[in-house]
Amino acid sequence: MEPMPGREAGFRSRIAATASSRLIHAVVASLAFASLSLSVIVVMTLSAAHHSLALPL
Fold first, then answer.
1. Cβ count within 10 A of residue 2
2. How many Å apart are CA 8 and CA 51, to the nearest integer?
3. Is residue 4 part of a domain?
4. Residue 35, SS3?
C-alpha cells in the first residue's frame, strides 16, 4: 500500500497543529477576566485592612 501524496504519516496535520482563533480569543478573555478579578480582590482586601487599622479602639 503506497501512501497518498500530500498526506503525512500518523495523526500529524497542519490543521490540527494550530488552534482556532476562537479558542485563542476565549482563552485570552478568560485570563484577562481572571487577572481583573484577582486585582479587585487584592484591592478590596487591602482596603478592608486599611480601614480596620484606622478605626479607634
1. 4
2. 64
3. no
4. helix
pLDDT of 52: 83
Which domain, by its residues, includes 31?
Answer: 20-54
Give residue 19's pLDDT: 75
**Average pLDDT per block of 10 residues along the chain, 57 residues long:** 58 61 94 98 92 72
Question: Cell 487577572 appears where?
Answer: 35
* Number of structural domains in the chain: 1
Amino acid in the structure at residue 29: A
Copy the grid coordinates of residue 36. 481583573
